[in-house]
Amino acid sequence: GESVGLHLPTLSVQEGDNSIINCAYSNSASDYFIWYKQESGKGPQFIIDIRSNMDKRQGQRVTVLLNKTVKHLSLQIAATQPGDSAVYFCAENAGNTPLVFGKGTRLSVIA
Amino acid sequence: DAGVIQSPRHEVTEMGQEVTLRCKPISGHDYLFWYRQTMMRGLELLIYFNNNVPIDDSGMPEDRFSAKMPNASFSTLKIQPSEPRDSAVYFCASSLMQAWRETQYFGPGTRLLVL
C-alpha cells in the first residue's frame, strides 16, 4: 500500500536557527495532513495540521507547507529552541481512512 | 482532564506469557486507537474503535493479539502468548467523533519487553 516517508532521519540545528523538516507522501488521494511531535518517553503530540485545499498554514513558531504537485509536506520551526528537540512525524489521511504515519525525523537542537 | 491514561508504563515478561495492556481514553471521546511503535516499522495502527465497537482490526499482526472495549472508558490490548518480536511501545489514542481522523490525543505508552 501507499505510505508516508521522510527525506531526513536526523536533523541537527543550532539554537535560534530555523528548522525545516520534510516529508514525502505517495497517496495522491490524501487530503489531510498532520505533524506530530514526540518527546522521549512520551506519546506523539499534535502540532499543526493542513488540508489539501491549502498550501500553507501557520501556528505559533511553526508553519506547514503543502506542495500537492510533488506530494511534499514540510514543517518549519522558527527560532528553534532546546525544547523543540524531539522526533517529528508527518501523518496523512485520505477520506474516511485512519491516519498513516511516517517513520519520523529526529531534531536535535545544539545550544 | 488527565488525558489518555495507559497502564502499565513498563512491562517485562517472558516469552509465552500473557500480556494485557490497558487504556482509559479522554472522557467524551468516541474513537479509541491502539498503535505499536518500533524502530524498524515506526508507528503502526493496530485497531480502532468507534463507540466501543471495533471498526478496523486489519493492523492486528496475528491471532495472538486481541483488543476489547467493554465500555466508553476502558480498553484492553492482549497478547497471548507473547513473543520477543512483540517488544515495542504500545500507544493508545482517542479523539472526538467530529474529529476522529484529526487530532488524536496519545497516551504515554506502554513499553513492552518480551524476553
Task: Describe the structure using short key phrases.
heterodimer, A: 111 residues, mainly beta, six-stranded mixed beta sheet, five-stranded antiparallel beta sheet, globular, disordered N terminus, B: 115 residues, seven-stranded mixed beta sheet, four-stranded antiparallel beta sheet, 0% helix, 54% strand
Secondary structural class of chain A: mainly beta
Number of strands of chain A: 11
Using only CA atoms, what is the Rg of chain B?
Answer: 13 Å
Helix-strand sequence of chain B = EEEEEEEEEEE
The largest β sheet of chain B comes out as: 7 strands, mixed
Low-confidence stretches of chain A: 1-8
Mass-distribution shape of chain A: globular
**Secondary-structure element pattern of chain A, one letter each:** EEEEEEEEEEE
**Largest interface, Cβ cutoff 8 Å:** A-B, 20 and 19 residues
Spatial extent as radius of gyration of chain A: 13 Å
Strand portion of chain A, in percent? over 45%
Which oligomeric state applies?
A: heterodimer
Question: Which helices and strands, and how do they pair?
Answer:
The complex is a heterodimer of chains A (111) and B (115).
Chain A: E1 4-5, E2 10-14, E3 19-25, E4 32-38, E5 45-51, E6 56-58, E7 62-67, E8 72-77, E9 86-93, E10 100-101, E11 105-110
Chain B: E1 5-7, E2 10-13, E3 19-24, E4 31-38, E5 42-50, E6 53-56, E7 65-71, E8 74-79, E9 88-95, E10 105-106, E11 110-114
